[in-house]
Each structure stands twice: as structure tokens, then as C-alpha cells.
Design goal:
Elements lengths: L1 E6 L10 E4 L13 E6 L2 E11 L14 E2 L8 H13 L4 H6 L9 E8 L12 H13 L2 E2 H7 L4 H10 L2 E8 L5 E7 L7 H7 L5 H12 L4 E2 H8 L3 H9 L4 E7 L19 H16 L4 E6 L5 H14 L3 E5 L6 H12 L3 E4 L5 H12 L5 E4 L11 E7 L16 H12 L2 E6 L4 H4 L18 E5 L10 E6 H6 L8 H13 L2 E5 L8 E4 L16 E3 L4 E3 L6 E3 L12 E4 L3 H11 L5 E4 L9 H10 L5 E4 L12 E6 L3 H4 L6 H13 L10 E6 L5 H7 L3 H15 L6 E9 L2 H23 L18 E14 L2 E10 L6 H9 L2 H6 L3 E6 L6
Parallel strand pairs: 12-17, 12-18, 13-15, 13-16, 14-15, 16-17, 19-29, 20-27, 20-28, 26-27, 28-29
Antiparallel strand pairs: 1-2, 1-4, 3-4, 3-5, 6-7, 6-8, 9-10, 9-11, 21-25, 22-23, 23-24, 30-32, 30-33, 31-32
Helix pairs in contact: 10-11, 21-22, 22-23, 24-25
Length: 841
Amino acid sequence: MYARIIVDVPAKQTNRAYDYRVPDCLKEWVEIGSRVGVPFGSRIVQGFVVGIEERSEVADSRLKDIAHVLDWTPPLTRELVELGRWMARKYLCHEITALQAMIPAALKARYEKWIRIAEDIPHGVEWKLEEETRILDFVRERGGVAVETLLKQFPGAGAVIRRLLGSGELVEERKMRNRLSAKKVLTVFPPGPDTDLRLLCDSLPGNARRQREVLQFLADHPEPVRLTELMNRLSVSAGTVKGLAERGWIGLREIEVFRDPYAGRTFSRTTPLPLTGEQRQVYEVISESLAAGRHEVFLLHGVTGSGKTEVYLQVIQRCLSEDREAIVLVPEISLTPQMVERFKGRFGDQVAVLHSRLSDGERYDEWRKIMLRKVRVVIGARSAIFAPFTRLGLIIIDEEHESSYKQDESPKYHARDVAIRRGRMNNAVVVLGSATPSLESYSQTGPGGTADSCGGGAGFRLLSMQSRVHGRPLPEVHIVDMREELKEGNRSMFSRSLHKALEDRLHKQEQAVLLLNRRGYATFVMCRTCGYVSSCPHCDISLTYHQSSHMMRCHYCGYAEREVAECPDCGSPHIRHFGTGTQRVEEELGKLFPGIRVIRMDVDTTTEKGSHEKWLTQFRNRQADVLLGTQMVAKGLDFPHVTLVGVIAADTVLNLPDFRSAEKTFQLLTQVAGRAGRHELPGEVFVQTYTPAHYSIQCASRHDYRSFVQTELETRRQRGYPPFQKLVLLTLSHEELPFLVKSAEKLAGALREAAGSAVRRPAFAAGGSIPGDDPGALEILGPVASPISRIKDRYRFQCMIKYRGDTEVSSIVQSAVSLLEDQLRKEKLQISIDVDPQVLL
């Protein structure tokens, strides 16, 4: 029996699998998806089994045995291994990188030096020093120990240990261990039913009153109980309990428990709500596919407040009734508290939660619940798409338009595409829900829509919910031209109409949400005498001033320095803060409305574990008048007393050098407007802007998605951007600019040469939709400096590939990158390949 294994060796990271023999003792444990330790050169390294064969093309004498199995249950299913292979092809990453992305951090191996007794003791070493004997006995009793453990036990014995290693009596090897192990707690087990408690108590000495209390408690509560809980309830010592265990009267042993991120929380059980006509229609269409076990992709376009979450819940219930499992993705952690409450309230302990703010241990245990089939529903952020279900029937992606579904680091996957691929592999239904669907998804609907990029082979099916629950109206949106405000002498960050609306809500004791998609106090600090701007010494970006700490910070590399009282260049005291961040808005609110209660939610205030839930709970309990924040307050939140939404600066995203800036602006404005008037009280929205005529702002003010899409699609068509052309972004970085420029030019030349060769091959235009000699079928742009040309002391240059149709670009990219192999390995040149990039900065 032979295993094909992808090894975790950075210098050897290719998509090649190596053959290893499976020892007889491991044949029952090694299967596709297993994580194993294998010899690679002189080391033992981690690997994933991606195939099992009865014979190998490699001569048996050249093969090595698998050293050990890291997990008795494979952490990856056969389906996830196949998915990893697909991800490596689509996203041009290494297969090991894709497989590593699927398992929790706690399972990523930690390597440590390990000392054990040699199997064959060399001759001539019978006589030993006393310390040598003690060291050998210590290692022998434990079957092997970590080097750090041995040195800690025998401080100052380094020379003795080296001598034993040199004589061959001790052997050093590299051993892998998981970063975390299962949590175990000492648990007390009561006497069995056949035990006569009175006889036990009578046999105790007269002064053993505490032990009698323990026995009596266990008789009254015949369930296992944690030792710490028993000690707290009876105020007894551990010695009291252990004394009974030593007599054999009670059991005391470690048992495994799951770390629970929601321990101590109770969730009120809920029942399905009556569905509106639109909800019912959507539910029935999706349920029909679930019942048929048919893979389909649905794009659910539902306006804010139309009740998409209730549809999700009832569709999941239908999925569970078919004895299948469901994954629900939410875009940001700020959505999880309310969503978790709704899902736990409906499905109880059947729900596992996976997101980045859990501790490694909590995330590991939630993942193990999935592996052990203790849960059937997973809700979480992007990486929850890799939940190791084996009967997957439904995948829901809420707010599918969100760019946070795209991974920033390799593998640069998009959770939407991975979800569709998994859906196809499992004959599962995929539901993409949003009030503002991405143009890429929307263009997949209708007669010409295809899902080929995800291996779907068929278009998305559009479902629509255009009315709010109970017929509540969408909020009225007012566009405020801040240029006119300036002409009228108003230099405040609040327009007169928004100021008046805030006063009105405070008087009525209603709540407001204010959005400014820029954290900090000021965007930059500039000298008004000479024009000096405080900039990061490691990145080509200005520092953002944070008033609470009086620090200027770089939001790319984390560099920080104290604020300055005078210009470092000319010494002028006229150094000022320019631009507006959330901290400054918070300060201004306090000045204009004395006594106002403000909760600010941005990256600076939500770093602690549980901080999102804390702030949102306080706001729901009406402990604040205003919720102020960045885009994390713009979507998914549902508060009955919010009747006012104010957008401080609608142009923040609109002016970014990104072809998606208009789409992101429309989505952000529409989403944040949807926070107002969701219940009995009507809502009102004020959008402050310096470009009031822009179609993204005009369409958002009318809640007019279709008009925006028509205009934006035509703009994209003319400029050759997605969804009409696909993109691959290649970014090179190096510490020396001349070397980087030369390497970027070499890469661009290689790309053009490889593309020219591909054009001459008939297979280049597979499907015939684009003639092979069409010069517009593929275009290489660059090299040019990246919009942010230096980050963390590394200069950055980029090339972009734009192509249409079914062009296979992976071979083009791989061919070009292979010419830079020496520079990548020896010259510290780095390359990032981003297929279907969401951000071009």
C-alpha cells in the first residue's frame, strides 16, 4: 500500500505529490485526507495524503515509510482534498497552501526537537555517571521528551546530554505536534448503584466529616461532576475528594470537554414566523431543489428589511429534514452576534460558530464538533466554507457582494466561488443573498449567465423580494450637497439638515446610526507653512492621527509616532490636522450635543474579544443615542428604535483609484440606509456629499438597484472590466527599486511572449466564443508602480492580465513566473498572484 503525499516544505512547494510506503501498522489509519509525518531528507515533515495506490512507479528501494499519523480521524474529507486541487489550479497557488487553509490554526503542526532512547545501544557504554543514569531513566520512563523539557528537568546538564547523544545512547529527532490539544478536566464519578453508601460512610473515621458530605452529595446527584465545581459547591479541598478516589470509592479521571465560546449564554428558542407572499415563493423554489437533491445556484435579491434571514432559517430547517447539513457565511464579525442569536435560538446545539475572534482553542473545538457530527449547521466568516461536512446540502452566503469574502493572502480564494464549487461536488443548493448583489453575480443571471469560472456550468437563478416585511416603506433618503453648505458659511462636518434631524431624534428619544468609513481622528497631518505631511517611513502613505492616544499611525504596517507640536522640516508651529475620522466625529458630537451618548465602532474600539457584541448589546438596550462607525455598522444590524441614518462623507470610497468604487459606494449607501425604519417607526437618511449628481449616489437615494446596474454595466463594458473581462493581478516587491523595475519588466515581457504563444494555439479560445487571433482576447498591462508603491520597506510593481472568454491563463502565468525562479529563491524577490482581484491597491 502506497500513499501519495503533498509535503509541507516551503523550499519544495510545488503541486507534486511524493510516494511513501504505508507500514502495516498504519494501514488501518492512513486514508485520503490524513495528516501524516514523513521523512523528507533528514527531517520529519508534515504532509497530507491525497491518494492511495496499490503500486508505485518509483522503485521500492527508493521509497521511505510514513513515520506516523498525526490524527486518528483525517482532518480533511476526500471532497476537501479534491477541492484543494481545484483551488490550486484556479488561484495559481500551491496545493499544500490550499489544504492548510482548510484546517484550524490549532492543527497546523508545531515542530520541536525530541530526545529518545536509541533502539540499539552501542557496545562499550556500560559504565555511566550518576547524572547520565538519571537522564537516561527519565527519558526511558516517558518514551521520549522534548529537548526543552529535558533541559528544564536537568539544568546545567547540556554537556552530559551532548555526550549521550554523541555515544549514540540518546537519539535526537524532529517531532510534530499540534499547536493545541483537546481540553481535559478532572471529573468526579459517583459510586455505582450497587454501592452501599451507608457502609462507606460508617467506615470513615469520625473526623472525616467533609468526605461524608462529598459522598452524600454524589448520592443525591448521581451524575459526573467537574472536580472544580464540586469543590466550589461544597467548599472542600481537592485532597478531600482525592482521598475518596484513592480508596476506590469514587472515580476521578480526566475527560475531554469542548471549549464553548458561548458558555453561560442562554438563547431563547424561537419558532418559524409566518412568511410573506414573496418569502413563501422564494422558500418554495429553493425547497423544491433541496427535495430533489439538485445543485442550483440562486441569487436572492431582497431589499433591506425584506426578511431574508427568516427565509434562510426556514430553508435550513428544510435541509435538515432531508438529513443533510448547512453552511451559512456572513461577511464580517460585526454581523455574527445577532446572527448567532437567531440561529442558536432556532437550532440550539446543532449550530457551530467559526470566526476569527474565537480563541484558537474555541475554534478548534467548534471544528471538532463538526468532525464528530455533533452539529449540522455552521455559521461563520469566510473560512467556514471549509467546514468538513460529509452530507452537505445547503450553502448560504449572506451579503454576497462583500469584498471580505475574498482572502487577502495565499490562497487568494473567493468564498463565493469555492461555495459554488462545493455545491456542485455535493449536489447542494447555493443561495447568494444581498440587497445589492455584486455585478459579477448579477451578470450570471438571465439567458447569458454562466457559472463556468466556479465549475458550475449553468447560470444563477434570480429570486426577488422587493418589499419589506409588513409592508413597511423604505426610508426616505435626502442628498445634501456639502458645496452649498460651504457657500452658506457652514464649515461643520454636519450639514444643517443632519444637525436638525439629530436634535429631533434626541428629543424623541429615538436612535441614530452615523457612518464614516474612515477611522482615526484626522486623515493626515500637514504643515500649513511649508506643506510637509507626516508620512510613514516604511510605506508611501500618510500617517493617520489618533487623538485618544496622541499618536500618528500607519494603517498598513502599524508604525506609530507621537504627534508633533511643530513642523520637523521648517519648525513652524502651524501644523494642523486635516480630514475627518470617526474619533473626530465623536468629539464633535459631544461639543454640539452636550450629554449625547455615543458608541463608536471601528477597528480601534473592537480589538478585544467580545467587543462587537458588547457595543451592539448596549446599543440595542438603548444605552446610547448614536452608533457611530465605519462600514461595520452599515449592514446586517436590526434595531427597532433607529429612525435616522447619517452618512458623513459619501465620497470616501467613490474617489479611490478602483474600477469598483462606484459599485462599492452604491452598496455601502444602500446597506446603511437600510438600517433605518426597519420596525414600526419610519426612517430617514441624510447623505452628505460633494458629488451629488453621481449616478451611484442618485440611484442609492432612490433605492434603485436596476438603474445603477444598467449604468455601471455599460461603463464596465466600455472600459473592459469585470464582468465583461476577467483579471489577474501580479504584484512584485523588493527592497531595492532598480532591481524590482528590472524584474517587473522581465515578467511583463515573459507574460507577453507566453500569451503570444498561447494565441497561436487553437485551444487558446476554447468554446469558440472569441477567435484565436482576436487581439482583444488577452491584454497585458504594465509593469507600473502599484498605487501604494511601498509597504513595509518593500517597493511594489504590478502587471495585470485582462482576458475574455474561456482563456486558460494559468499556463501563461506559470510559464512567465518560472523565468523569475532564481530571483524568487535567491534575491528575496516576492510575487503575489491574485486571480479575480477585489482590490487593485
